[in-house]
Design a protein that fits this description.
This protein has seven helices and 14 strands. By secondary structure, it is of the alpha/beta class. Strands 1-2-3-6-7-8 form a six-stranded mixed β-sheet, with helices on one face. Strands 9-10-11-12-13-14 form a six-stranded mixed β-sheet. Helix 2 links the parallel strand 6 and strand 7. The protein starts with a strand and ends in a 24-residue tail after the last helix. The model has no long low-confidence stretch (mean pLDDT 96).
Length: 288
């Protein structure tokens, strides 16, 4: 089985891992789940994290085929437009982005000019779709539950699972966002855990745990089956739904959810400028 070269980039303020995935037989690569730095208090963006990826790609003379999102992130802003401007490549996300756009277009009163058909992205992926990064075949698994549009990208022996799973000592993604569902997430996780046990799983986040001080971004199907504190072998769907629902009820909203969703539902673009030429992000009061 093909073994892609995977390089991770940690944005510690949002606990986010971005990835460059290389075809070992060519210069082709893809970027997954990029981060646009955002100072919420100042309302100011920065491209430090994106520039780190750009520097790596240029140093290794790579060609960007794809800039991919595993889902519409609620904890960081995507740097996809900036990376595409600098490096090229097509953007992609799950086809059910349209459901997320419908939900949040209403929440943020985005207006009739905001397209709810996913057309902000170059390609919308369905379950079972395949595409290429150079000579590497990528297979798409639809893994909803955290959000309706969540995907896992299976690239050779590596699967990029987004927020579906965390490290075994931390568990699984929350399911209480609009369109989320714990039973659906359980079934999606079973799809991932049905992959060969030596499949490498690359995570979008690590929040550490009480017993660990070092960030980890990689685990395996075998490790998740044996040790995931929420969905190890023997945990039933009913047990998981009860655990996940009770845990979600104790969680606060992610710090950057309001700016993140407004930007990420637009494929990383900002809302259009208003009459004074200034771009604004909205804070809907008492809605969520």
């Amino acid at each position: 089985m093909a073994r892609p070269i995977v390089t991770s980039f940690l944005d510690e303020p949002t606990n986010t891992f971005s990835y460059v995935v290389q075809d070992p037989g060519s210069h082709a690569c893809a970027i997954l789940d990029s981060v646009l730095d955002f100072d919420y208090a100042a309302g100011r963006t920065d491209v430090r994290s994106a520039e780190e990826i750009i520097a790596f790609i240029r140093k290794h003379d790579l060609q960007v085929d794809w800039i991919l999102e595993t889902h519409v992130h609620a904890d960081h802003l995507s740097a996809a437009p900036y990376l595409r401007e600098k490096l090229g490549g097509q953007t992609g996300i799950g086809a059910r982005i349209t459901e997320v756009q419908e939900i949040f277009a209403e929440a943020f009163n985005a207006g009739n000019d905001f397209a709810r058909d996913g057309s902000q992205f170059d390609h919308l992926f369905e379950e079972g779709d395949t595409f290429a990064i150079g000579g590497l075949e990528v297979r798409v698994l639809h893994t909803p539950g955290h959000t309706p549009a969540c995907l896992t990208y299976l690239i050779g022996d590596a699967a990029f699972v987004g927020d579906t799973l965390f490290m075994p000592d931390y568990g699984t993604a929350r399911c209480d966002f609009p369109g989320g569902d714990a039973a659906t997430l359980f079934r999606s996780i079973q799809k991932v855990l049905a992959l060969p046990e030596d499949t490498r799983l690359f995570l979008c986040h690590d929040y550490l745990s009480p017993d660990r001080e070092t960030y980890h971004h990689e685990t395996s199907v075998a490790e998740q089956r044996a040790d995931n504190i929420h969905v190890h072998e023997g945990v039933s769907e009913e047990d998981f739904v009860k655990l996940r629902t009770e845990r979600d009820a104790t969680l606060g909203m992610p710090r950057l959810i309001l700016p993140s969703v407004q930007v990420n539902m637009r494929a990383g673009e900002m809302p259009p400028a208003e009459q004074n030429g200034q771009v604004y992000l909205k804070v809907p009061l008492n809605l969520f």
